[in-house]
Design brief:
The protein has one domain (about 1-15, about 20-270): Jelly Rolls. With about 280 residues, it is an alpha+beta fold. The strands form 2 sheets. Strands 1, 2, 3, 5, 8, 10 and 11 form a 7-stranded antiparallel β-sheet that branches. A 4-stranded antiparallel β-sheet has the order 4-9-6-7. The protein has helices at about 1-15, 25-30, 40-60, 70-75, 85-95, 95-105, 180-190, 245-255, and strands spanning about 35, 75-80, 110-120, 130, 145-150, 160-165, 195-200, 205-210, 215-220, 225-235, 275.
């Protein structure tokens, strides 16, 4: 009986509104990201973290030794759309609490799910090079945001996410895939334009939200434990699909948007509305 009651508490937390700090929306709009403390409890992270971790290791197909991997492969194990694999993972991904925050930060009427992805940086995992996520997405509007949820406390040695503040407004590097090249070119360009860098640890229960065009990176994991992170990518519920501009967007159009015709809105089956006013 107690397990059922506890589970109900967890579900209640996932679907109860979070009180945004007074300056959070303005900070996000200006800087293209925001870090928020105490968004999820230790109990929620432990319960759903175990479920997500089991799925990651069951579904992972990247088993090459670290020294044989590309820079991208060394950055993390990446498992997508866990919500379609497991009903309990779906409870976490469909959290109204997290989706409402995304809605309020972007100042839209509601959000759809683009897709979720677990990003597990293994011990000895390398850097995540500088990049902007929306390079990969055939979406017409910049109203997209990713919530980055560490499933454990994430000190510097684990490689927490770092952000170039205000970089969502610049056109540089929007045509570069995540790679050694993107790390070198963007590090130089962002430094030249004096974008402040927020490179700080994450407390347990702290999460970040970053816009689709905000440049970000992460350091290597030099700790002895995996850096376990779950993410959900949200888009304005009124987002429209645009003509893909590169091979990655062509693939994303087919995989995450079910090849819905250009100019139309995503469909509810694959891209459900998770929160709406």
């Amino acid at each position: 009986m107690e397990t059922l009651v506890n589970k109900q508490w967890l579900l209640n937390e996932l679907n109860t509104p979070y009180e945004l700090p007074g300056n959070a929306i303005a900070f996000y709009q200006k800087n293209g990201y925001v870090k928020l403390k105490h968004v999820l409890s230790e109990d929620v992270l432990a319960y759903y973290g175990d479920i997500i971790t089991e799925l990651v290791f069951r579904l992972n197909t990247l088993i090459k030794p670290m020294e044989e991997r590309t820079t991208y492969e060394r950055a993390f194990l990446q498992i997508m759309n866990l919500w379609r694999e497991d009903e309990q993972a779906k409870e976490f991904v469909f959290s109204k609490r997290l989706a409402k925050i995304a809605t309020d930060l972007m100042g839209v009427e509601g959000v759809r799910l683009y897709h979720d992805q677990a990003l597990y940086k293994e011990p000895s995992g390398g850097i995540t090079p500088w990049h902007a996520d929306q390079f990969y997405w055939p979406l017409a509007s910049p109203n997209t945001v990713t919530v980055w949820i560490p499933l454990q406390e994430t000190p510097m040695e684990m490689g927490p996410l770092a952000f170039a503040e205000g970089s969502q407004h610049v056109e540089i590097g929007r045509d570069i895939e995540i790679s050694d090249e993107s790390e070198a070119i963007l590090a130089q360009a962002l430094q030249r334009q004096n974008f402040p860098l927020n490179d700080t640890p994450f407390d347990l229960g702290e999460v970040s939200y970053h816009a689709g065009w905000t440049f970000h990176r992460a350091g290597p994991n030099v700790s002895g434990k995996p850096r376990k992170v779950m993410t959900m990518i949200y888009m304005d519920k009124d987002q429209t699909i645009m003509q893909p501009r590169n091979s990655y967007q062509i693939a994303d159009h087919a995989t995450w948007l079910n090849s819905v015709p250009v100019g139309q809105k995503p469909q509810d089956e694959l891209n459900p509305v998770l929160f709406s006013y």
